[in-house]
Amino acid sequence: MTEWAKAGALKPLDDVLDVATYKADTAPALVQLGTVDGKISGVFIKAAVKGLIWYNPANFKGEAPATWDALEATSPAPAKNLWCIGLESGAASGWPGTDWIEDFVLRQSGPDVYDAWVAGTQKWTSPEIKSAFEAFGKVVGQAYGGSNAVLTTNFGDGGNQLFTNPPGCLLHHQASFITDFFKKQGGAKDGQFDFFRMPDINPSFAGATTGAGDLFGMFNDTPQARALMAYLVTADAQKIWVERGGALSANTKVTDYPDAVSKRSADILANAGVFRFDASDLMPTAMNDAFWKAILDYVNDPNKLDSILSNLDTVQASAYGG
Question: What is the pTM of this model?
């Protein structure tokens, strides 16, 4: 979106939308993300909160761990393993692992490091990024089925073991949209899944949240395009996706979520103190592709982390035009 806007291909929307209403009704972080050089260039019509830890209330009881250390020390009982992870996603295999890395970078090292990493000025071999990979490696070491299952399980099936008897895992890290997969692929019913936010790691960055979303821009300035863009930012338009399940609205006036779990996810998005968009989605295509592959390579052989990160530095130097 930013590249197209700077190139003049996307038309500014400031005279298409009722800007005051749009800004009042839309999560502030999403308004900012859609603004390029002071002009509204894209509007989010569907969003997702990431960094959510999902569980089956029949198996995980009590309070959510307050810190990451406490979460790591949680007993998996009655499950076989603490975590379930699924990285397979066709040509995009590996992307669920990038979400883990992003959450660790933001919670360990903060938004400034995160932004520099997205911008291509924070080296992958830096201690901050390496530490995030190592933290993810510990999670994989506690995952159901070991590295082979992690690599071959489709992301949509990644949480299915929460609902088996006996359960294969206690926890699953995934975005708010996974609820639709829990129902359709895991056979779960409402009430069989819930979540807590991934705990803070560095207290200096408390409340940091990652997320993603789908946005629209206008390439052709026609009456029909203007009418569509103006409609898409409204609560009436966005509640259509919400009612189908597995989606959050960028419009805060949409409050009639189909279940309490979705409503809590929407509240996190609307009230995030520090919000950062999915890092890999913001990186150049070559960098994003290399990131996905690096996740798979690391899970397959964690002993090669230094060479994996060094290769990512090489890709970074060319992908950003350096």
Answer: 0.90
